[in-house]
Amino acid sequence: MCLKVKGRINRTLLVIFIVLNLFFTVGCTKTYTMNDVKFKKDLIIDLNSKSSLFTLIHDIDGIKPTKENIKNNTFSFRNISIKYDNFDTSKEGIYNVTFSTNDPDTKSFTKLIEVADISKPRIKLRENKITVFSDEIDSIDYYKYVSYSDNSSDELTCIIESDEVKNKAGEYEVLIKVYDKAKNTAKKKIKVVVKERPAESQIQTSKDNDSSGDRDGRHDAVDESSSSNHKSENNSSNNSADRPSATNPSQYNKYFSGNSIDIYNAACSYAESIYSSGKAKGYEVMPDGSGFNVTFS
């Protein structure tokens, strides 16, 4: 009895194995024809594109093609091979393209392929953030912070939307839009940081030896941990012992032309470097309407 049951099990397993083997063998040896090849609904290739026309194939009998199936002007999938002659994408228009195949029932076929500008322009920001004083808002040249290009040689249009930027301290966003002749539009934003220009009394960092000791509100580009006011330090016995005697500090006086916040920061940094090196006992940064005058004592 046991031998009979065991024999039946073995025969059942054998049948299952044969069925599975036939299934996989038939599946792997299927012969595909051009009837199995489906192209996308919209046969459009981008202007000046280097992509193969075979990127327009949607599927082969439900199987999505990959880049491994495409080599230059040849498409290969299992037993199917499709080719086309060189195709020029440098001019917009609709072209009748002939494809040749190894399918004995469909030696060749044609498709209407459209070449059109369907890609957006490319925007590159030279700076992601612009920092200015509140009285410089109207003089910002946003275009110098932007470059743009496109796949077409047509003229591009750039629009700067900066109405949101106000002449008071705060952070704002400016929208940059670039579009081409085909109305493909690219967008990017650039941040604008607006700061109040320091009053004359605020940027003065050194005067005669008074002992007020309170450091006035200087721009944040100067280290707030520096000694207060950077005045002559004869009234501090400990610091004066450590600092070398300044010889002719006026030789380091320097004028920084321009009214931007970057110029102001550069003037303050220069003053700090001279002062910290012990070449001067104090300094002041004074605006004159055209720039900043740095003087040492």
Account of the protein in words:
- The chain has helices at 2-28, 200-203, 237-242, 261-276; strands at 37-39, 44-46, 57-60, 70-71, 74-77, 80-84, 93-103, 106-116, 122-125, 129-133, 146-149, 157-161, 170-179, 185-195, 254-257, 283-287, 291-296.
- A hairpin with an 8-residue loop joins strand 12 and strand 13.
- The strands form five sheets. The protein has a six-stranded mixed sheet, with no helix packed on it. It has a four-stranded mixed sheet with strand order 10-14-13-12, with no helix packed on it.
- It contains four helices and 17 strands.
- The longest helix is centred in the N-terminal third of the chain and has 27 residues, at 2-28.
- It is elongated.
- By secondary structure, the chain is α+β, with helices and mostly antiparallel strands.
Query: What is the count of DSSP helices, taking H or I runs of 4+ residues?
Result: 4
Strand order of the largest sheet: 2-8-7-6-5-4
Helix and strand element order:
HEEEEEEEEEEEEEEHHEHEE
| Derived structural class | alpha+beta
Biggest sheet overview: 6 strands, mixed
Share of residues in helices:
10-25%
What is the 3D shape?
Answer: elongated
Average residue-wise pLDDT: 81
Low-confidence stretches: 204-229, 231-241
- The proportion of residues in beta strands is 25-35%
What is the CA-atom radius of gyration, in angstroms?
38 Å
Overall number of strands: 17
Kindly report how far apart the N and C termini lie: 117 Å
